[in-house]
Amino acid sequence: MEGIFDLSSILWHVLNAAILFVALYFLLYKPVRKFMQKRADGVSAQLDEAAQKEKDADALLEQSHGALSSAQREAAETVSQSARQAQKRADEILSTANAKAEEIVRRANEEAEQIRQNAHEAMVDESAKLAVLIASKLLEREVSLEDHQKLIDEFLEKVG
């Protein structure tokens, strides 16, 4: 039994196991550990990048919401301003139209008054002519009561 528990054999086995562990450590453990660390760092970087992109997307979303609400306010203000301008223009048009209508009515009244005055003057002239005609007829002959009534009736017919 000496061969199994030989001290030199045990030392060689221990030395071989130690060399094997050191060789495996340098050949397998360190590269795998480096690979795993790189992989963990890459995944961590991707997660950080994804989180940053999410924050950027949220910021852009908030910015676009702000721009949208600003655009909506501007649009509402533009519509309101346009409505005010349209109302102002409509008031101006109505005012101008009313002024023109009043001018037309004033001119029509003036023309009607002128026509009335001309008609009155024509009637006065006609009355004067008839009076002169009656007077001349009266002077031409002697007028009886019947003739006088007849002249008055003729005068009224012409004036009528």
Short key terms for the protein model shown above:
single chain; mainly alpha; 160 residues
Structure report:
This protein has 160 residues and is mainly alpha-helical. The protein has one domain (7-124). Helices cover 93% and strands 0% of the residues. The protein has two helices and no strands. It has helices at 7-140, 145-159. Helix 1 (7-140) runs antiparallel to helix 2. The longest helix has 134 residues, at 7-140. The N and C termini lie far apart (174 Å). The model has no long low-confidence stretch (mean pLDDT 86).
| Average of pLDDT | 86
Assembly state: single chain
Written as H for each helix and E for each strand, in order along the chain, the element string is HH
Strand content: under 5%
Work out the helicity level.
over 70%
Number of strands: 0
Indicate how many domains the architecture comprises. Answer: 1
Largest sheet: none
Low-confidence segments, given as residue ranges, are: none
Separation, N- and C-terminal Cα atoms? 174 Å
Q: Over the alpha carbons, how many angstroms does the gyration radius reach?
A: 63 Å
The 3D shape can be described as: rod-shaped
By secondary-structure content and strand pairing, the structural class works out as mainly alpha
| Total helical segments | 2
